[in-house]
Amino acid sequence: MLERIGLPITFVLLWSSAFVAAKSGVVYATPFAFLAVRFAIVAAIFASVGTAVYIWHKARKKPAKTSPKLTLRAISGSACVGILLHGFYLGCSFYAMANGLGAALTALIVSTQPLLTTALAILLFGEKPHAIQWLGIAIGFCGVIVVLSPSLGSSAPTLSLIASILALIAITGGTLLQKKIGHQVGLLHSNVIQASAATLFFLVLINTIEAPHIDWTPNFIGALAWQVLVVSTGAYIILMILIKRDSVAATTSLLFLVPPTTALIANVWLAEPLTPTTVAGFFMASAGVFLVTRFAVQAKS
């Protein structure tokens, strides 16, 4: 019971903290350069852990845990997940915010993902959410709107708006693809593959459409360390576990809690105002997520 509650709560807290760290980091670096360095380090960490585990098992003359055999199809599928979830989703989101689209509006667009994901999951995986889950999604979406409504602008740059919509499509497609192929690649291998694919993706971008720049200040290094160790390592592993364990609708509905939780974290660390409207939206989003996750097991049947 503690695991079923603890993992989602931890994921929401860690995933939400990414926005605060990103806000600090992009002041000192261009978005794609920041992400390229981030995922190069993440790939190196997971590769080192994998090597250490292999050496440890070999030294003890003990066979490693059986994991799915890596095939070209499995590797390419996992790489596609990495490009979608790390490359397009984060790349498009960062690009949108760096080019005039407000963080609130970007978050609002991306937070509609559960609606799209749930609909596609019905078609692709035969998931059958209960009517009360649809009610939960609607309440959660309304909660996000309530939280973000005070800061939503009346206009937005067209290219940035398109980028945020592409981010929504990318995280939806990446989540569904991971749900479909997650069993084909072990968790450690998949993280190495996905982070490496994302690194190559961003290297292409900084050599084609971005003039990369990084100012290696202590603040940037702190933001980078948080993104690598807490978000890309901790939160992403939890996300993969949740996708594999729960229904797609239940897992992605947790993203409804990200904007309100980000507002709470920003209030503590950045002294951003927290209004009664924000608090009300937070509880609405929480109620929506409860309704979706509470009936996740029944929805699978």
What would the keywords be for this entry?
single chain; 301 residues; mainly alpha; 13 helices
Average pLDDT taken over every residue: 80
Large-scale geometry: globular
What is the rounded distance between the termini? 20 Å
* Number of helices in the DSSP assignment: 13
Radius of gyration: 19 Å
Short description:
The chain is mainly α and 301 residues long.
Overview of the structural elements:
The protein has 301 residues and is mainly alpha-helical. It has one domain (2-300). 77% of the residues lie in helices and 0% in strands. It is built from 13 helices and no strands. The chain has helices at 2-25, 31-59, 72-98, 103-110, 113-125, 131-148, 158-181, 187-206, 218-245, 248-253, 258-269, 276-294, 296-300. The longest helix has 29 residues, at 31-59. The radius of gyration is 19 Å and the shape is globular. The chain starts with a helix and ends with a helix. The model has no long low-confidence stretch (mean pLDDT 80).
